[in-house]
Amino acid sequence: MNKSQLIEALAKAESLPVKKAEEVVNTFFGDMEDALVRGERVEIRGLGSFKVKNYDGYKGRNPKTGEIIKVAPKKLPFFKVGKELKERVDIEE
After folding, report:
1. How far is it, in rounded angstroms, from Cα 35 to Cα 81?
2. What would you measure as the largest C-alpha separation in the chain, in angstroms?
3. Tens of pLDDT along 4-29?
4. 73 in Cβ contact with 57 (< 8 Å)
5. Cβ 17 vs Cβ 10: under 8 Å
6. For the whole model, what pTM was predicted?
7. Beta bridge partners of 77
């Protein structure tokens, strides 16, 4: 499912105009993004949690030339799946 499909599903499920559903989805994701930028953790019960992880810099190698390069430290978003979702996805058929 992509973002536009999510918007369509919300509009259908809640009998909303597509524009209103798009506004809701964009607000939801925008607020999540803002919280992560501020370094806050975002938890959605039953789904999982998002947080920003700090990664140290390291020396890497350019695979094309073999040259050693310095990779700068960085921050990346990280998602940890919740127990409920993990169990629901792992149901054997």
Report:
1. 18
2. 57
3. 999 999 999 999 999 999 999 999 99
4. yes
5. no
6. 0.78
7. 52
